[in-house]
């Protein structure tokens, strides 16, 4: 870690301690980067997070955030302080498994419901994916419901997916968009429709890790083509459509994280198509795990590493 990074982290911790004591302190200077349309401020909101995986916003502006090791926090976005959420389900924390994403119900203010995905232990050496519905009672999960018997459900909507890492709903059309990892190349963006086969492992724009062809090539009758794909791979992660007021030039665009290169990729969308992209290089912060629009129109992202952090992006006022 560079000395400047170490100083910044130390300064943030000192400021949080002073803020908790009621001391009025000046704002910490933000990092500044350039994009095609804006000069951007990047400011840490919360640090000392161990492999962050997902986050979502509560109606009061606080954030629920998951760590892959099975911990969940409520984060105060004004101070960066973290409060543990109790009675989170036990997870199989190994390799890519653990506590994964969290979603706050749209009617949370009334029902207090959240949804979480995680790796459910089956035996000492095996696990399966689980989705749980729970009620957040202050800082404790209650009324937890989960189906883990492994049976196929009638709700299965589509198939032929490989390692989906991000999913979001288009704010106007209600369509579900997903980001999926290929093998060696062939990462995809897809619009998910009922009953559609998205190809894996029959077709792919990537190759096997030994360089050989996957399945039957890149096209086959009756199998959907990706809306957009990357070759070489970028390892896309969490994503969101931007609809806020702070970045009007980004309105309607899809913002996707990149684990491999530490990017936020702005995908320019038009009538259900992707016409181009801009890559915002944030590799100095680490692997980008998830990206979301905050209620105030800023953009927030988390990183995926032992010293993860939650960051906020806002427009900078350029000096004359």
From TrEMBL:
UniProt superkingdom: Eukaryota
Domain Glucose/Sorbosone dehydrogenase: 50-144, 150-312
InterPro entries: 6-blade_b-propeller_TolB-like (IPR011042), Glc/Sorbosone_DH (IPR012938), Quinoprot_gluc/sorb_DH_b-prop (IPR011041)
Name this protein carries in UniProt: Glucose/Sorbosone dehydrogenase domain-containing protein
Name of one Pfam family that matches: GSDH
